[in-house]
Amino acid sequence: MNCSKCYNLALPECTDTLLIPIGDYSGSNVTWSISDKFGNKWYGVSVVSNDLEISIQTDLFDKGLFTRFSGNFKFSLLGVNGDPDRILCDPILIKVCGVKYECISISFYQRNKVDE
Q1: How confident is the model over 20-37, as a mean pLDDT?
Q2: H-run or E-run covering 105
């Protein structure tokens, strides 16, 4: 199985929820980090859904942080079913489509406007 550094994920900007695929950890509590291009880091704990993804509410972050102008963010998985205060130095591998990655590089795109 290949082991690449980061999986590239594009999400719509200005969304209420970030859906991040992480694989293999259904029902588990996972500790994660997200960092921006300036090295700012945010940490959290989420439960992995049956769809093998986690849902992160964007209202936990500064308003307007996740836009197409923000650059890429790095998502890392730091712990599974462990103490959320214990942050590991080496990330846990994330499995997407059968390939293991050390991280996810998240970029944002503009949604198409829908006429109402």
Answers
A1: 90
A2: strand 99-109
Read out DSSP for 1-51? --EEEEEEEEEETT-SEEEEE--S-TT-EEEEEEE-TT--EEEEEEEPPTT
Average pLDDT over residues 41-65: 92
Query: Using CA atoms, how far apart are residues 62 and 49, in angstroms rounded to an integer?
Result: 25
Phi then psi for residue 58, to 5 deg, are -75, -10
Q: What are phi and psi of 60, to 5 degrees?
A: -80, -10
Q: 7-22, pLDDT tens digit by residue?
A: 999 999 988 999 999 8
Are the C-beta atoms of 56 and 42 separated by less than 8 Å?
A: no
Closest CA to 106 of 1, 21, 3: 21
DSSP string computed for 7-19 = EEEEEETT-SEEE
Which token pair is 44?
């959290």
pTM recorded for the entire structure: 0.84
